[in-house]
Amino acid sequence: xxxxxxxxxxxxxxxxxxxxxxxxxxxxxxxxxxxxxxxxxxxxxxxxxxxxxxxxxxxxxxxxxxxxxxxxxxxxxxxxxxxxxxxxxxxxxxxxxxxxxxxxxxxxxxxxxxxxxxxxxxxxxxxxxxxxxxxxxxxxxxxxxxxxxxxxxxxxxxxxxxxxxxxxxxxxxxxxxxxxxxxxxxxxxxxxxxxxxxxxxxxxxxxxxxxxxxxxxxxxxxxxxxxxxxxxxxxxxxxxxxxxxxxxxxxxxxxxxxxxxxxxxxxxxxxxxxxxxxxxxxxxxxxxxxxxxxxxxxxxxxxxxxxxxxxxxxxxxxxxxxxxxxxxxxxxxxxxxxxxxxxxxxxxxxxxxxxxxxxxxxxxxxxxxxxxxxxxxxxxxxxxxxxxxxxxxxxxxxxxx
Length: 401
Prior knowledge:
Layout: H1 2-18, H2 23-28, H3 39-51, H4 57-68, H5 84-97, H6 103-130, H7 136-139, H8 145-154, H9 158-171, E1 201-203, H10 211-222, H11 230-244, E2 257-259, H12 260-265, H13 281-295, H14 298-313, H15 315-319, H16 330-343, H17 353-362, H18 375-387
Helix pairs in contact: 1-17, 1-18, 3-4, 3-5, 3-18, 4-5, 5-6, 6-9, 8-9, 8-10, 9-11, 10-11, 10-13, 13-14, 13-16, 16-17, 16-18, 17-18
């Protein structure tokens, strides 16, 4: 393991050195205020390395400066991964390792994002009152209220956090037609006219589906922050996931989504799919594990950990990951495994970390510098797993921590 750790740290350092200057991002035309693809996200790599003693704050400061410059959007279509909330969260995570910096900027951000959250909550409750289907942009982690809830939870804004949690509780109630409250009226790619999703779908994943709200509700409960109906909401989501849990010789798995046809006609569900953080079983398993930890449910915890173990031991699932990034690649599987292994009831998950690190090192090369799908995320996963450090809690952006 010592050689693997050393090689991983070297690989992460090489990537970080290649991303020292923000100039390359400007040349690519990537929006700086994107946590997924811009300077805000790449700053997380340098903040984490500086905090753990492997890098310097000059690089982190350079990327944060680019992220925080210009006209940051606080319009109603922004969220945790784009706009003012994305840049504010990058700044917040930097302060976890270097307290006292950016205090004034964060105070201004807090006011703006609190007002944004109020507007978004008003719109969401109005939509529910009308009986219209939900949309990813309303509730999900990336641009929805779950992501804004992550921001407020980490900033200790308890009133705003509880307001988001109350909305999520309401989202878990079935609609009058019996569909789950998080049923969206569009396809997994919202503008895609795919006839298979003519009546919408229910998404199960961490990035855009119900696993994200489940993880946030569980994390808040673990901190003692709860609202009326909180535990009932956890139970409703768990029951839904139990209904659609699929058997497999190596361990249970969950589909990416459920369509009307699958819901009503007992249509077959192909799978298992690739074990990605965003849509796949690993993200759902982590949300389930967090719920188990919040409730003290040992049986649920074992189920969630067995599900991830199945992803790791099934060659077909492992080999279906062909990209290195966090979102739907090897880095996401590595980071999810590390987090779940930390909390697991057995050592089995941890035993898979060395081969995962080795595989990611082999497939780490990418032309993209981005956090979510590119080199910055790969380097973060390698660095923090190999160094066994987590100074900035960067994976709170993925609802893993």
